[in-house]
Amino acid sequence: MDIDKLQIFLKVAQYGSFKRVAEEEFRTQRAISKQMKQLEIELGVTLFVRRANRITLTKQGQFFRSAAQDIVNNYTKALSELADYNDEVQQNLQVGYFSAFEQRLLKSALFALKIDQPDLHLNIREESNEHLMKSIKIGNLDAALSIEYGNQHLDLESSISSETIFTGEMVMGVSTLNALSKQDYLLPEDLKNDQPILYYSPESSTFLMESFLSSMTFITDLERIQRVTSVEQMQLLISLNQALAFYPSGLLNSELMTADSHIKLMPIRHSQQQYQIVVLYRTDNENPALKNFLQKIIPVK
């Protein structure tokens, strides 16, 4: 499988037409169709429902679309980082983070670090919990901000250290169109309906879904827990009462939330919804910039 096939697959999924993609790519329709057939053979599934005037995705195709987008995004990002990398820069720091919500913690620490080291080259990535841990393990990142939630904890190797830098409680975002928003808090029985419950993650992540399910055992329909790939999309769906969503209290961007008065953030009674943001790093990493970063990001005890 190569990146070109994935990029073509995403375009076919977007346009619903081999012909249109062929015209845009200056290839023949037959070549595009053949390439997609090869992709299906490689994966061992049928990705498309082929009709005379429209190409649509099968359920397997819809599932694979998200994974393919993640792969293409990571590949494109890696190329950009390679192009920007300057061997003459004496100090580099590679930092990852899990979601847009902990940007405030990261930005504050990195801003202070840049004041002390204005020539420091920063490489910053947004990845899933799983990818962050793998990147730390193999040395692709110096440090990463990740999340531990509910009964699920990160499975770390002895060479990786974890320091808590922030704690809080997960709350539920509810539309003001929803009758539940009239209450001061939610009870587990309030959530036993059919509305989807969303969580934000930039990449496919089973860790968060498993975390939510382990702390909300009263939810038996696993398909209700769904991932969204942007905070803006989540805000829109919640505002219009199309779903509920998890939010980390204490890490919310005040401008984002005050701009959307159609969402009420509500605690969940009788349910353990604690979370903590941790910074991960290898204990054998000798990058001096990492030491300075940790001094900025870890609270003084």
Please characterize this protein's 3D structure.
With 301 residues, the chain is α/β, with parallel strands linked by helices. It is built from ten helices and eleven strands. Strands 3, 4, 5, 6, 7, 8, 9, 10 and 11 form a nine-stranded mixed sheet that branches. It has a two-stranded antiparallel ribbon with strand order 1-2.
- Residues in helix, %: 25-40%
SS-derived structural category: alpha/beta
The parts where pLDDT drops under 50 for at least 5 residues are none
Largest β sheet strand count, sense and barrel closure: 9 strands, mixed
Sketch the topology as an H/E string, one letter per element.
HHHEEHEHEHEEEHEHEHEEH
**Would you count the extended β strands for me?**
11
- Counted by DSSP, the helix tally is 10
Percent strand equals 15-25%
**Coarse morphology:** globular
In short:
The chain is of the alpha/beta class and 301 residues long. It has helices at residues 3-15, 18-25, 29-43, 59-84, 103-116, 129-138, 206-215, 231-239, 254-258, 288-297; strands spanning 48-50, 55-57, 92-97, 121-126, 143-149, 160-175, 197-200, 225-228, 244-248, 263-266, 274-282.
